[in-house]
Amino acid sequence: GNSVTQMEGPVTLSEEAFLTINCTYTATGYPSLFWYVQYPGEGLQLLLKATKADDKGSNKGFEATYRKETTSFHLEKGSVQVSDSAVYFCALIANSGYALNFGKGTSLLVTP
Amino acid sequence: GAVVSQHPSWVICKSGTSVKIECRSLDFQATTMFWYRQFPKQSLMLMATSNEGSKATYEQGVEKDKFLINHASLTLSTLTVTSAHPEDSSFYICSATIRTDSTDTQYFGPGTRLTVL
């Protein structure tokens, strides 16, 4: 079946540090890949997406590249801010009309 | 664009009562909406897929008679938790799908926190 695995948290970083959150997936065919962010007490916000191999999604300084050869979609940011503290979910849609398959989420805490 | 709203944002009710949660796509039409449940510090668990004008498709283990879903229009889906009990207390989140260039993207509502006393 389809599944997403992301690194366990929590991740604690100092402000301006480099961030990587690993995400790998298992899916048949060519899924679309997503990163969502959830701030405390809120719903999920789409952070970025990529729909085919070698696509790079980017938004608010975050980037992720769809790597089919390694079945990965790692999230990176060059310099994190305190306001980036949240839970980050990697997800895929295997086929149109299907629900998202989520990873378990990675909690990020950025300290001043 | 792509804004999804939920109402209410939080609700507290007595055990045995029913609670209705609305999910609306404000600036687009959504053929498909999804309902998720989230427990503290956990990922989202898909409850059901809701298609406009047809019966919802429930995930294994989700009681369809307890969690009634109605998708009456392309912009509105409702989830009714019937005869709620404390174990139904949770964060319920809906999402609506936009399809562009043969790719689906889901946009999420802000969630509804249900507390059953």
Notes on the protein architecture:
- The complex is a heterodimer of chains A (about 110) and B (about 120).
- Helix content of chain A is about 0%, strand content about 50%.
- By secondary structure, chain A is mainly β.
- In chain A, strand 10 (about 85-95) and strand 11 (about 100) form a beta hairpin.
- The radius of gyration of chain A is 13 Å and the shape is globular.
- Chain A starts with a strand and ends with a strand.
- The termini of chain B are far apart.
- The interface between A and B is medium-sized, with 23 and 26 residues.
Which keywords apply here?
heterodimer, A: mainly beta, 6-stranded mixed beta sheet, 4-stranded antiparallel beta sheet, globular, B: 117 residues, mainly beta, 11 strands, 57% strand
Outline of chain A, from the CA principal axes? globular
Structural class by secondary-structure content of chain B: mainly beta
Distance between the termini of chain B: 37 Å
**In angstroms, what separates the terminal alpha carbons of chain A?**
41 Å
Count the DSSP helices of chain A: 0
Quick overview:
With about 110 residues, chain A is mainly beta. Chain A contains no helices and twelve strands.
Which SSEs are present, and which pair or pack?
The complex is a heterodimer of chains A (112) and B (117).
Chain A: E1 3-6, E2 11-14, E3 19-21, E4 23-26, E5 32-38, E6 44-50, E7 56-59, E8 62-65, E9 75-77, E10 86-93, E11 101-102, E12 106-111
Parallel strand pairs in A: 2-12
Antiparallel strand pairs in A: 1-4, 3-9, 5-6, 5-10, 7-8, 8-9, 10-11, 10-12
Chain B: E1 4-7, E2 10-13, E3 19-25, E4 32-38, E5 44-51, E6 57-58, E7 67-73, E8 76-81, E9 90-100, E10 103-108, E11 112-116
Parallel strand pairs in B: 2-11
Antiparallel strand pairs in B: 1-3, 3-8, 4-5, 4-9, 5-6, 7-8, 9-10, 9-11
